[in-house]
Design a protein that fits this description.
7 helices, mainly alpha, 55% helix
Length: 150
């Protein structure tokens, strides 16, 4: 009986590999990108690149497991949701009030430890933020939001 269960499981997993996954495409176009078009402090730029850009930009680095089902389905879902919520590659398309709102939300979520998501940190240990980095990021986001209206 155990043998049948294992064979069935292997067949299902192999069969899942045949299901097409539409990974969101990447783009080298930085004409609307937050970092490319603004003077972002290096420490904040590093945080954004290491902890945010994989899900919140058109510059996703897909690791090997993003090509293996069923994990590939989760990765694609997270990237799609992340880009829909906030896409740093489209930052300059936002007006000042939408940028300020996004910055306020970013500050709050990073400071409270909601971002980056825990599931992302499992395989991206370099994305984990220290308390100091969280505080620096939140202060930068709040200051940047205020500077938009000066």
């Amino acid at each position: 009986m155990k043998k049948i269960i294992w064979i069935t499981l292997i067949v299902v997993i192999l069969g899942m590999q045949l299901v097409p996954v539409n990974r969101p495409e990447n783009s080298d176009d930085l004409s609307k990108d937050l970092i490319a078009n603004n003077q972002i402090p290096e420490n904040i730029s590093n945080i954004l690149k290491n902890s945010c850009y994989d899900c919140h930009s058109n510059q996703t680095n897909y690791p090997w497991y993003a090509y293996v089902a069923p994990v590939s389905f989760l990765v694609v879902n997270d990237v799609n949701e992340g880009r829909e919520e906030l896409n740093f590659s489209e930052w300059e398309n936002r007006d000042k009030s939408k940028k300020a709102k996004a910055l306020d939300e970013m500050a709050e979520e990073v400071e409270e430890g909601e971002m980056p998501m825990e599931i992302y940190l499992i395989t991206h240990s370099n994305a984990k933020l220290s308390d100091k980095q969280r505080k620096e990021f939140a202060e930068w986001a709040e200051n940047y939001a205020e500077s938009l209206f000066e």
